[in-house]
Specification:
By secondary structure, this protein is α+β, with helices and mostly antiparallel strands. The protein folds into 2 domains: 108 residues, PAS domain (Beta-Lactamase, 2-Layer Sandwich), CATH 3.30.450; 168 residues, Heat Shock Protein 90, CATH 3.30.565.10. It has 9 helices and 12 strands. A hairpin with a 5-residue loop joins strand 3 and strand 4. Helix 6 packs across helix 7 and helix 7 runs antiparallel to helix 8.
């Protein structure tokens, strides 16, 4: 029977950080839910076992524990690999903190390096997006006024021209002014207040799929890979449709009429988004087998006016990122020739998650 854990540690199950509690013999007394997710090992397979049994051959980790216990002071080991009893290998940073709360002797706190890099990247993207939004809003307002004057002057000039044939040139001015006006309207659309309501992610995807199949060449295949047990999320249906539509449309244009797109949904558990921990989120992946994103713009694809196509506006992915961020989610992209995957994470409210558990057989 396991020793009882002091009430001091009762809040560990809510932490996003992986934590293990050890006794004086380096035996695991407690593993919080975040550690189960990080190591892909259940608490049952860790609690009651020594650290060397849970992490075979982890000399660096054992040395850090030894240093913390013998020195009776916190010890931090940066960026080292460990392998779990289930043969999962990952790079972590570990902080070992001695405590005197029997039977607990040591607190181990783990952070996966990939997760730290992801959080830092997410913070940079949020800052960049805020700057982009401000830039686009100011740009749109500065352009709209003179654009209206330009169009009005062209209409007046058209009525004064003596030869009807010359009106062809004023029509070019008017049509281009209208095109720029539509572009400015698109820049200002993201700032509309979202209309949040219960939304089924698969209805969103089916709407996108039907729209694109109607306008796409015969050589494009859009395949579904849905987890139909996912609950509804609270979101703005139209903005989610537009976000997914922009990404899929970019993929179709990149494939030049030939290729396959996969729309995949799964549940993602214990997700941290914008420094907030969610018990469950929807992971939506848009995968294509096209040529991939050019390396020179791969790190800037969410910036406004950056496009891999000469005729592209460079706004599709910027708007998609804005809409997803409004839902407290995030977009990541992994691309190389023959495989491009956009991953969207959308958090679920606790009430949605509970209702999904009740419906799951």
């Amino acid at each position: 029977m396991k020793n009882p854990i002091p009430t001091t540690f009762s809040g560990l199950e809510h932490l996003a950080t992986a934590v293990l509690l050890l006794d004086s013999e380096s035996r695991v007394l407690y593993a919080n839910p975040a550690s189960e997710v990080l190591f892909a090992v259940s608490a049952h397979q860790m609690e009651g076992f020594t650290l060397s049994q849970v992490f075979p051959g982890a000399e660096i980790l054992l040395a850090a524990v030894e240093s913390a216990m013998h020195g009776n002071s916190p010890f931090r080991e940066h960026e080292f690999p460990i392998t779990t009893v289930r043969q999962n290998t990952l790079a972590v940073t570990c902080t070992a903190t001695p405590v005197d709360l029997p039977p607990v002797r040591l607190v181990l706190e783990f952070q996966q390096m990939d997760q730290q890099l992801r959080i830092a990247r997410e913070e940079r993207m949020l800052i960049q997006q805020q700057a982009n939004a401000e830039l686009l809003r100011n740009l749109a307002h500065e352009i709209r006024n003179p654009l209206g004057g330009l169009r009005g002057a062209a209409q007046l000039l058209e009525h004064e021209l003596p030869q009807p044939a010359l009106r062809e040139y004023t029509q070019v001015i008017i049509k281009e002014a209208d095109r720029l006006q539509r572009l400015m309207d698109r820049l200002l659309v993201p700032h509309r207040v979202p209309k949040y309501e219960s939304t089924n992610i698969h209805e969103v995807l089916e709407r996108v799929r039907s729209l694109l199949l109607a306008e796409s060449p015969q050589g494009i295949t859009i395949r579904r890979d849905y987890d139909t047990s996912l609950p509804e999320l609270i979101g703005d249906r139209e903005k989610l449709i537009q976000a997914v539509l922009n990404i899929v449309r970019n993929a179709i244009q990149a494939m030049a009429g030939q290729g396959e797109i996969i729309l995949r949904t799964r549940a993602e558990r214990q997700v941290t988004l914008a420094k907030k921990r969610y018990r469950v989120a929807i992971r939506l992946q848009i995968i294509d087998n096209g040529p991939g994103i050019p390396p020179e713009i791969r790190d800037r694809i969410f910036y406004p006016l950056v496009s891999g196509r000469a005729e592209g506006s460079g706004l599709g992915l910027t708007l998609a990122q804005t809409f997803i961020t409004q839902h407290h989610g995030m977009i990541e992209c992994d691309s190389h020739p023959g495989h491009t995957c956009f991953t969207i994470l959308l958090p679920l409210e606790a009430t949605s998650y509970k209702s999904a558990k009740l419906k799951t057989p």
